[in-house]
Amino acid sequence: YFTITDPYFPSALTESYPRAIGGIINSENNLLSVSIEVWDVDGGIILSAYSDVLPLNTKTYDLSKLDNQLHLNLLKPGNYIFDIYIDFWDDIDSDYKTFTLTVNPASFSSTNIGYPTSITQGRGFPVTGTVRSTGNITKVWVGAYSSSTAAPDSYIVGASETISVFSYVQGYNLANLDSKVVFNNLSKGTYYYKVMVELSSGTRYTYIN
Fold first, then answer.
1. Nearest to 106 by CA among 86, 132, 83
2. pLDDT per residue as tens, the chain (209 positions)
3. What are phi and psi of 17, to 5 degrees?
4. Minimal CA–CA distance to 59: which of 24, 92, 91, 30?
5. Suppose 16 and one of 63, 97, 158, 199 were both cysteines; which one would form an S-S bond, judging by CB atoms 3.0 to 4.6 Å apart?
């Protein structure tokens, strides 16, 4: 009951990396509404986007209007089903087209991350280096921890920065947190120095532990 002119739907993308969708819906029948749903392999709806009710006698629709509702950068690695649904004003009910989507894991890299092996009590240490990812970095942690398995926010001294999921940051200068990580406040003892990030998909990665 409908065709798509100049469709743009990624069949594969990198985790946490934003991708646009597009294409023009064309139909001989009157369109009532358009929706997109992304399903996981277990049949659960992960993402969705819906148009308003369209005016009578509407026979075309630009799918890019739904792009700002469909945040593909939130998807975790895996395989998904991408469905486009059309409801009609006429008595023919609805129609849909199905596409497949594979999300591949992001990769991570870093340069010039310095880390202390020993510090005299009461002295500081500069936080340096840059962390990068092919995905969208939304949070960064740096700090001294009591154990190698400590949760990101449980640092003894440390700092974090949260970045909007819509900023699409793929690199971060750790020196931005330097003034907030006060090593000279540490008591005598042994600690774990950790640098961690979180992507918009929820994936966390530890650069230094």
1. 132
2. 899 999 888 899 999 988 899 999 999 999 999 999 999 989 999 999 999 999 999 999 999 999 999 999 999 999 999 999 999 988 767 888 999 999 999 999 999 999 888 999 999 999 999 999 999 999 999 999 999 999 999 999 999 999 988 888 999 999 999 999 999 999 999 999 999 999 999 999 999 99
3. -100, 130
4. 30
5. 199
